[in-house]
Amino acid sequence: MNTMNITILGSTGSIGMSTLDVVARQPERFRVHALTAHRNVERMREQCLAHRPEVAVMVEPQAAESLRTALAAAGAETEVRTGPEALADVAREARVDAVMAAIVGAAGLLPTLAAAEAGKRVLLANKEALVMSGALLMDAVRRSGACLLPIDSEHNAIFQCLPNGYVCAESVTPHGARRIWLTASGGPFRDRPLGSFGGITPDEACAHPNWDMGRKISVDSATMMNKGLEVIEACWLFAVPPAAIQVVLHPQSIVHSMVAYDDGSVLAQLGNPDMRTPIAHALAWPERMESGVEPLDLLTMGKLEFFEPEAARFPALGLAYRALEQGGTATAVLNAANEVAVEAFLDQRLAFSEIPAVIAATLDAMDAEPVDSLDRVLGADRRAREIAGEQVANARKVVS
Q: Nearest-CA neighbor of 205 among 344, 393, 395, 360?
């Protein structure tokens, strides 16, 4: 068995750490070539000493210098690089076989594109890469022959429920698939009175009942914008229209998604809520391997519930469908405005209930343009962030 060399983009985040856990269980099968992070020097130092990558990238120059000093003191031989271009370099390097794209937000777009253009096995945990530039990324995958495998638990579940040999970006229609059911836990506020949403704190929003995630993604789960972004991602991955995807609340997070077929069959993928399952699936595909996840005990699982999400409780979901209908750069605008609004909420500069309003106002202010170049996507992203920032400032003035 040949050893697979892996670059992990965003190794200090929850997906990155879970990937390292899975890889460490199969040392004869995987070799960590490069690890990257933004500024978490201490965790990166620990990872470098444990996994001994050839390269570590810290986006912030000061963090890179601190890591370089710490590793030298420990006698580690890992080369430390810095800057956004270094992220792309370790994603496209010839000796790399697979790239875990786990950088949260728009910052993950360029290195994910670089990996796709270089024909790598791309393990896609960064949904924003498709949300912002779906046409560009999928074109790069087709041109280079890259293997694109979804890591989000929902998309990985859909992939597993499709016929053997199915390839992402190939329409599911010829396989007889009629509908995709995208499950969502509903986050921490699925039963909270709507009138109290204005007083939600960042700590409350980040206390997800089922999953251990970073703060930004946890807020997206609470607003269900994460599910809206996943709908957009699913449209690109599986080449289906928005009308073919239905979001359903499933509080237990045991059924990770389902595919309904023309003959009346519904296939579902079940498992404990642990990201190591989809990570191990994508790393070993088309084979299977041990992930460290406890097997699902059907006899103690209890009931499984499914509900339709309330539009008034989760307006962010409707905004995602709206951006899909507008097409072009509208989904990049949606993502940028959401990132600005969530950051403002986490910094306590914006009420939780105002997040969808900032996003809607930003979509209103910008016309959708064709996604025909990376420059156009990045330009729309920059302008949307400016407008969303203005909306946040205006919301603060109203409150004060």
A: 344
